[in-house]
Structure formats: C-alpha cells, structure tokens
Amino acid sequence: MPHRASHAVFGRDRLDATLKHMSKDPAPTIRDLYPNFEERELTEAEDNLDRYLALALRIFERVESDPQADALTAGAGTLGSNSPQVRA
Questions:
Q1: How far apart are CA 4 and CA 67, in angstroms?
Q2: What percent of the chain has pLDDT over 90?
Q3: Nearest to 10 by CA among 74, 57, 73
Q4: How far apart are CA 50 and CA 56, in angstroms?
Q5: Domains of the chain, residue spans
Q6: pTM above 0.85, yes or no
Q7: DSSP label at residue 5
Q8: Cα–Cα distance between 48 and 46 in angstroms, integer?
C-alpha cells in the first residue's frame, strides 16, 4: 500500500499505540447511556448509531483504498462550492 498523509493518522503503528492505552472494560451500551428511554426510543437510537458507524466505516475504507480520496481540493471535486477554501 502506498504511503499517504492519512497513514500518519490511521497508520498501524498509531492504531497499535492507541489500542494499547484503551481500557479493557466494555464500552457502555445505548441502554446504559439512556436508561430513561422507552423501548421504542432505545431501538431507534441503536439503529441510528449502527447507520452512523456504517457510514464512518465506508468513509474510512474509501480513504484507505483510494489515493485521491483524501485530496480535499476544489480540483478534485471534494470541496463544496460554499467551502471557505474555494474562491470564486
């Protein structure tokens, strides 16, 4: 895999170092975070979290697989027309 700037952030060494310092305790669940939610609200919150995490994973996988995906420039078409970096 070619070296890119994103590897400085998402590289294996960085990931290993981060995981080494993480707690071994299980993460709280939606139910732990929102004990007063009704069953319907908990289900909706869990579904929303699942969709968000799936989107985040797709973005990460795209950046890792496409060398141009992390090129945030107007020429690459990755910045919106209202972005402060784009000048008319």
A1: 7
A2: 34
A3: 57
A4: 10
A5: 27-67
A6: no
A7: H
A8: 5
